[in-house]
Amino acid sequence: MDASASYLAYMAAVASAQGPNPLGALTNQPAGPANMMGLDLEMTRMAQETVQETVSEEVFTTYKASVPIIPHAQPHPADIVEAGSLAAMALPPTDYPLADTIPDDVINSGKLSALQLEGVIYACTRHQMVLPNGCRAGFFIGDGAGVGKGRQISGIILDNFARGRTRHVWFSISTDLKLDAERDLRDIGCYVKVIEGCQQLDRETKVFGLPPGFKDGVIFSTYATLVSSVQKGVGASTSRQSRLDQLINWCGGQDFDGCLIFDECHKAKHFVPGKEKNSTKVALAVATIQRLLPKARVVYCSATGVTDVKNMAFMERLGLWGRGAAFNDFDQFLDAIQRRGLGVAEMLAMEMKGSGMYISRGLSFRQAEFVTVEVNLTPQQIKTYDMAAHVWNELRQALTTAVARTATNNPRMWSTFWSSHQRFFKQLCMGMKVPAIVQEAKESLEKGYCIVIGLQTTGEASLECELSKHGGQVLGFVSLCKEIYTRFVHQHFPTHIQGQEEKEDFWCKSAKDLLLGFADKMELPNSPLDEIIDQLGGPQCVAEMTGRRGRVVRKTPKSQPQYVLRDSDTTGDMDSLNIREKTSFMDGKKLVAIISDAASTGISLHADMRAANQRRRVHITLELPWSADKAVQQMGRSHRSNQSSGPLYKLVTTSLGGERRFAAAVARRLQSLGALTKGDRRAATGADLSEFNFDTPYGRTALRNMYYGICHGEMVAGVSLDSVTHGKYQFGELNSIMQDCLTQMGVIEEGGGNSVKDKDAGVVGRFLNRILGLSVERQNLIFHYFTQCLNANVSAARREGRYNEGLVDITASSVDLVGDPREVFHGVHNGTNITRHVVLSVDRGMDWDSAVQRSKNHEKEKDGFYCSRREVRGRRLYILATQKENSTHLFKVARPNTGVSSFDEEISEILSRYSHVAVDRAEHGWKQQYEEASQHCIHGPNCKNGQACTVGSRCYRVSLLCGGIVTLMALLERTVAQYQVKLQLSKVECNLRVVRVELRDGRRIVGLRYPEVLIPLAEKALEEQNLPESIIQRIKNQPTILSNGMLALPSQTTPPPLPANRATSAVIEPPCPVVRKCLSRATTPPVTIKNFFKPCSTMKRTTSASTVAASQSDSSVEAAGQSNGDATDPDQSRASQASQSSVSQASQSSAIHSTDISQSENDQSQDGESRQTKAAVPNASSTTDGDVVFLSQDSASTQGSSFDSENKLSSSQTCQDTNTIEKLSIKRPLGSSSTNRPAKRQKGQKTNSLMSMFKKSTQKDEVSKLKKQTCPICNVVMKPGTTNGELNQHIDNCLIG
Fold first, then answer.
1. pTM: predicted TM-score of the whole model, two decimal places
2. Which residues have a Cβ under 8 Å from the Cβ of 1076 and sit 6 or more positions away?
3. From its phi and psi, is residue 264 left (phi > 0), alpha (psi between -120 and 50) or beta?
C-alpha cells in the first residue's frame, strides 16, 4: 500500500472513530467539555508538530572544487566560500577533456587553480549543449571578486582557440580593462591577439580588407562601443554602419561558433522582451547579438549577477524559458518566481547549479567585519533639519496654490518636486554625517589603519550650476542642498499665467521671492565630499577616485577655498587620474581614499601583500546606493584575494527614521541579489542587513494596516499605544499628528477625505522617502509606529506558522534516509534536473541532558519545567518552557518526544494546563516520556490507528522533493490548496519550505518539504492536465479514410508539438579535437623587436662528438656512433639534425622556433610517434662538452608546450647542470633511454686536456665553415663570406620594410 492509500485509510479510521468530536479520535479520550478545555488542546498541538526547524546560521561554506579529470590541479590560494544552500547541491558529472589544451605548467604551477579549472570545464561542457530552440546553451559565472573570473574566461578562450575556433568577442565596461584581459591571457600562457575593439579594426582595414593578423583573435569591446555606429565610405556613398553589424561581419555571420563573453553583464539588465523599445540600448544590443549568432558560445560573467528576477531577461541562453523549456516565455517565468518570493529564487539558484549552467563562489568574509554606526544629531543639527522640513512644506503648499492660480498644466511638476525633495534631504543627511565620518577616520588613522570612504554621488551637476551662475568662479565651499532647493524654485515655480506669458501673477511672484529668501536663512552644510577632503588634510593627503573634473579646495589651511581642476595638481602623465590616485594610496603616500560610483569597478584598494601600504582598510560608507550592484562593487574594492588583512566595514546612518530608507533599499537589493546569485539571500556580501529591510510582503502589509488605522481613527491590531508613544501622547493626539504627517507627505489630499491614494497604499520605498520631509520628532514617531506594525504582522505570521524565513535547517538528534530516492513527475521539463522524492526518518525528541542544558541557558522567572495538571492515559506530560527574546508573554515550548515546538504560546495558556515543577521532579517523567515515544505514538502501543498514527512519536517521517522543483511550484501549491481541508493537513504541513538536513553519515540534502500523501495526487493532476493535449495529438496522428477508400497517413514533415511542461531533449555535441596548428599559435609568443634583440647569456652544456660529425659526413656519423654507443638511431639522428639546425641560427626568434617544431613533428610522425624538439635547445645527447651555446634570456619561458599523439600533455625531461647559468627544459626523444644520457661529472674530475682543446677548436672551425647564414626575418640564405655588418644591415631593412 502506497503512502496516499495508507494515509487515506488512517483518515477514514479517524473519521469513523471520532463521531461528533474530532479531537476525541486524535487523543483516544472520550469527548467532553473538560478535555476540550485542557489537554485536548495540548494533544492537538502535538498532532500538528512536525520537526524542529531553525533559520540556517551557516550562510557560507568553505568551497572545495572537484576536478577529477585534472589530478594535478592546485588549490586556490585565497579562502573561497560558497553559499551553504548551493554547497548542498552538487555539480553534474563531466568528462570534458580540458587537459588536452591547458599546458601542464599552467596546471602544476596553479596559474589556473582547481576552482578556476572547474569553471572552465563546466563552461565548455555547457557549450556542447544545443537547446531545443536551436541556440547553443550559455554559461553563467557568478563568482565574486578575488576568485579570478578573468582567468576563467582566458581558459575558456584558450580551449576554444586550440580546437579551431579562432575568433572570439569579449565585452566589458571600460577600455582600461583591456590590459587586464591581456594580462589574464598571458598569465596562463595564451598569446592570442587581443584587438582593441572595432576602432582598431577601422585603423587596420585596408583596400583589400583586414590583414591576416586581424582576421582572428579576441576583440575586446565595451558595451558603449556596441551601441555606437561608424561612418563608412566617402562622398555620396557615405553611410552609417553600426558596430553591431561590424562585429557580426567580423565573426562571419550566423555560423560563428566562437565565444561571446559578456563580462560585467549586469550592464545589460534593463531588457524588456516583447517591448524592446522600452529596453536600454545596451540591453537591446546584447540580446540582438545573441539572437543573430545562435551558435556562439555565450558566457555571462558578473560578480553581482542580477538584483532582480526581471533583470535576467537578456540571459536567453540559459534555457530557462522559450521553446522546449519549462516556461513558454520570460513573462511566465518572471511571474512564477516573483509571486513566490525569495524562497523560490533560492531554489532557482540551486537548480541552475545542479544543471551545470551556473557557478558562484566568492571570497570569504571571515576576515571582514561589519559595524553599523548610528550618528545622533546634535541640537543645532536638529534645528536646521526642522527648519528645512518646514521650508519644503511651505514650498509644497505654495506650489499647490501657484499651480491653481496660473493654471499650469505640467504633468511632471510633482514628480520633479519629490525628486528634488529626496535629493535635498539625502545631501542634508550626508552633510550631517560628515563630523562623525571625520572623527571615525582620524581615530582609525591613529590606530594604524587607512581609510576608504565610499559614496555614490559627488554633486558635480550642482557644482557646475553654481559655477555657471558666478562666471566659473566660486568663493568658499558650495552647499549642494541650497543649490538643489534654489534651482527647483527658479526653474519650476510658476509665476506667469498660462496662455498669458507676459502677465505675471503678483502673489506667485511674491511667494517665489519669499521662498528664495528662505534659502539664505537656513544654515545648510557644505558639499560633503569637499568638506571631508578639506578636514582630512586636503588633496595632498586624500586620494580621490571619482568622475568629477574639478573641486573646491584650499591651497593652504588658512587660504580661501577656490575651484580648481583635478588635473592641475597632478604630473599630467598618460595614466588616468584615478589610477594615479590609486597608486598613491597603495604606495602609502596617501592614507585616505574616497571612491564614488565612477571608480567602483576595476580598482583594487585592498591590503595587497604586494603593495607597500598593507595597513588594514576601514571602509566607511557615507552613502549607500540604491543599486545592490554598485554596493557590492564598492565593497569589493577593499576586500579581495592576496590581502594581508580583511577590511572593517562601517555602515554609517543617522538616527533619523527616514534616513534608514537608503539602508533599507540596499538591504532589499542585497538580499535579493544573494538569493539569485548565491542561493542564500544573506550571502550577497556577508553583511547581515536584515534589520534595515522593510520592503517585504510583511512590510507592505504593515504599511497598509497603518494607513488604514490612521485614516479611520483606529489603533492597529497587535500594537499598543505605549509601545509607540511611551506615554507621551493619548490616542487622539497621536492620530491627529499622524494624519497631519500623511498630508505633508502628499499621501492624502488636503480635504480629500480619509483615504490614502491607491498608488501609495503599499509602497514602502515612497513612504520612507516622503517622511524625510517631516520634522525630526514626527519623522521618528511615524517611523516607530510603522516598525511596531511590522513587528505585529511578523509575530502573527510566526504564531500561525506561515512566516517564510528562507532556508531552514531541520535539527534533530539523528536523521536517516528511508529507502532510496525515487524519481517522480516523469517527463516534466526541469532543465537537466530530475525531481526525486526523498523520505527521511527524523528523531525529533529531546533527551534529558539536552533539556537540562537548555534550561540552564534560560533562567528567567517563569522559565523551567512544567508538569500537566491532569493525567493522560495514566501518566502526566512534561514540557520545558522558555521565554522568547524581546517578548514578555510569549514562550517556546520543548517536549521530550517532539523537541522544540514551532508554535509560540502565551504564558497564560501554559499556566492554565501546567504547573511549574523543580528539575529533580521532572527528570523521571521526562525520561519515561522520551523512551516510550521512540516506539509508538502518544496514544500508546494499543492505538487503534496503529503505525499510521504519528501523533507525539519521536521518529517522524519527513517528505522532501529534491532536484527540479521551480517548474512544479504552481502544481504543488494548487494540490495543497485542493486537499488541505479534505485530508485535514496541518498549517505546518501546508507551509511549503525549503529545508536543509544533514544525515547521520554527513551527507546533506536540500529540498522542498511536501506532504508525502499529496505527491501521487499531484502526479495524477499533472497527467490529467496533459491528457487533453495528448488525446488531440493522438487523433491527429491517426490515419483517415478518404472518400475513395484510400488510407491517408498523417504528415510527418513537422514534429508534433509537445505540451508546454513536457521535456524536449537538447542535443549534446561531442568535443572537437585539438588542432595542433591552432594550439601552437595560441601558446607561442609573438615576435617583437623587444624579445628579438634580447641580450644573450652563455651556458656550457655537455655534448658528444657525434653531433658535429653528423653534420659533416656519413663516415663521421659512424665514428660518432662508436664513441657514443647509440648515435646511429635514426630518430636520434633526426633530433640531432633539428637541434644542430637551430644552433646554426644567429638569433633565436619565436617564428623560427615554431617552424622547427612543426618540422620536427612532421618528421617524427612518419615513424608513428609524436615527438617535439625544442628549437632553441639542442638535444642533451648531441652536443659536446665545453660547447658554448648562445641563448636569449627569455628563451626558456617562450617555448611552446609539447603534446603526445593522444592530445595529452607529455612530461618533459629537464636537463640540470650544476655549472649552468640558467636551467632550461630540454625535450628528450621518447625512444631514448636513461643510459643514453651523459654521465654526471664527479667533483674534481679533469674535463679538459691539451689535445681535447685542439680537437674542439678544430671542430668549431669546420662547423663555422659549413654554417649557412640565414636572415631570421625573411629566411633568405646569405652568400658565403657575408660579414656580420652586412647581415645586420639586411635584417634592419627587413624590419623597416
1. 0.68
2. 1161, 1203
3. left
